């Protein structure tokens, strides 16, 4: 079997889009027909890989594979051969499972860029009619939830068919430029959009935004996505009175870090007002919620790249400095669990275990003999962790600091 017509993939094309175009170009009636033929061919050549190759377009991407990512990659490599493509052409278009996590949440990666998995659209893939008119293929960015306007044509992406109102999803319809009702998306009129929406799209594709703010100057897309995810989880996700939307991130980060510090000051004030027990018996989480865990890996803990964590650590260094130890416990006496201590020390939880086993950190209350400290138990004084950080941190070079040598 050979596929005689071999379109070239575009570098920003989605894998599903390319397979659809490959199927069309070779006169298969549907992607299903191509995938049946591929499946048959794979089965004869490498039945393990065939088993890992799904027949449905919306499941074909590698990150959908659970235990069989490597077989899926093998199947794609065989398809590359059939399509006469250079090796790894298709795997570079694929979204793979990433070993990186964004604040504990799963990620996928493509072309060395880590993307929070929660950024991927699940229902419907909107399109830019003008981009489709220029070149008929689906851009990978259209799969990202926060990309809502075309950064080239400054128009809103088209989410529904202007004729039948169906949600546009090429993976279901198997059509890129037409709706199932026959409407030609290239004929759709472009609608103007807000400047912030285009800016957000430009930020997502890696363009420079006019700003002196460090947040917008990072050229690394994974770090940009980390900051967006943090903002989204903190301000946009929960329905609160003053819910923000994603495009508010520009205004927010222009005022960074003061905007966060004002909020944390408010939390400190509330913490004093609502205090039901002594602060040296209260957990950090009672006052600041999941602040530290949500900011730890975005997706790195290196402070010169994780500006959010850097600002938060600076805040607590100042808080401890401004709240000296006194008879009356204060905010610097809150209790951190082992994960939170690890975040503030920019080290691993194993290192924190070592630090208390070797006496650098003291537990706020005694543990029973031979009991391992549970990860979520508030155990270390904020003051002591920050003091240790200041005392030991002068030679910090990377994100993972070592305080005591390995066993
Ligand atoms: Zn466009
Ligand atoms: Zn339609």
Descriptors:
mainly alpha, 41% helix, three-stranded antiparallel sheet, 407 residues, 3% strand, binds zinc ion, two-stranded antiparallel ribbon
SSE layout and pairing:
Layout: H1 15-25, H2 31-45, H3 47-51, H4 69-82, H5 89-93, E1 96-97, E2 107-110, E3 113-116, H6 129-134, H7 170-173, H8 195-205, H9 214-217, H10 221-236, H11 249-254, H12 258-273, H13 284-288, H14 291-295, H15 307-322, E4 335-336, H16 338-345, H17 349-357, E5 380-381, H18 382-392
Antiparallel strand pairs: 1-2, 2-3, 4-5
Overview of this protein structure:
The protein is mostly helical and 407 residues long. The chain folds into three domains: 1-96, no CATH class; 98-218, no CATH class; 257-395, no CATH class. Helices cover 41% and strands 3% of the residues. The protein contains 18 helices and five strands. The protein has helices at 15-25, 31-45, 47-51, 69-82, 89-93, 129-134, 170-173, 195-205, 214-217, 221-236, 249-254, 258-273, 284-288, 291-295, 307-322, 338-345, 349-357, 382-392; strands spanning 96-97, 107-110, 113-116, 335-336, 380-381. A three-stranded antiparallel β-sheet has the order 1-2-3. Strands 4-5 form a two-stranded antiparallel ribbon. The chain is elongated, with a radius of gyration of 26 Å. The structure holds zinc ion (2 copies). Residues 161, 163-164, 166, 179, 181, 183 line the site of one zinc ion (ZN). Residues 128, 130-131, 150, 152-153 line the site of one zinc ion (ZN).
């Amino acid at each position: 079997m050979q596929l005689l017509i071999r379109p070239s993939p575009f570098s920003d094309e989605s894998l599903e889009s390319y397979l659809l175009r490959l199927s069309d170009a070779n006169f298969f009636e549907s992607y299903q027909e191509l995938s049946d033929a591929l499946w048959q061919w794979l089965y004869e050549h490498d039945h393990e890989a065939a088993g890992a190759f799904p027949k449905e377009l919306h499941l074909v991407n590698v990150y959908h594979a659970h235990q069989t990512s490597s077989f899926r990659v093998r199947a794609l490599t065989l398809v590359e051969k059939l399509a006469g493509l250079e090796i790894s052409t298709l795997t570079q278009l694929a979204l793979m499972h990433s070993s990186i996590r964004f604040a504990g949440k799963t990620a996928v990666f493509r072309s060395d860029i880590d993307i929070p998995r929660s950024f991927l659209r699940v229902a419907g893939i909107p399109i830019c009619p003008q981009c489709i008119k220029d070149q008929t293929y689906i851009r990978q960015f259209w799969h990202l939830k926060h990309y809502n306007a075309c950064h080239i044509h400054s128009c809103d992406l088209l989410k529904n068919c202007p004729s039948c109102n169906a949600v546009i999803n090429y993976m279901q319809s198997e059509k890129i430029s037409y709706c199932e009702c026959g409407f030609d998306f290239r004929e759709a009129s472009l609608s103007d959009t807000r400047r912030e929406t285009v800016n957000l799209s430009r930020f997502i594709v890696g363009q420079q935004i006019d700003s002196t703010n460090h947040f917008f100057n990072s050229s690394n897309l994974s770090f940009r996505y980390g900051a967006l995810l943090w903002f989204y989880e903190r301000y946009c996700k929960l329905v609160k009175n003053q819910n923000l939307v994603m495009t508010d991130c520009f205004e927010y980060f222009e005022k960074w870090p003061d905007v966060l510090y004002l909020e944390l000051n408010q939390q400190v004030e509330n913490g004093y007002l609502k205090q039901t027990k002594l602060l040296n018996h209260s957990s950090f989480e009672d006052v600041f919620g999941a602040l530290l865990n949500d900011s730890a890996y975005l997706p790195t803990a290196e402070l010169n790249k994780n500006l959010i964590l850097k600002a938060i650590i600076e805040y607590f260094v100042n808080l401890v400095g401004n709240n000296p130890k006194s008879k009356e416990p204060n905010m610097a006496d809150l209790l951190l669990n082992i994960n939170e201590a690890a975040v503030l020390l920019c080290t691993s939880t194993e290192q924190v275990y070592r630090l208390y086993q070797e006496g650098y950190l003291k537990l706020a209350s005694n543990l029973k003999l031979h009991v391992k400290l549970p990860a979520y138990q508030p155990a270390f004084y904020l003051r002591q962790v920050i003091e240790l950080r200041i005392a030991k941190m002068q030679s910090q070079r990377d994100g993972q600091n070592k305080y005591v040598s390995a066993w």
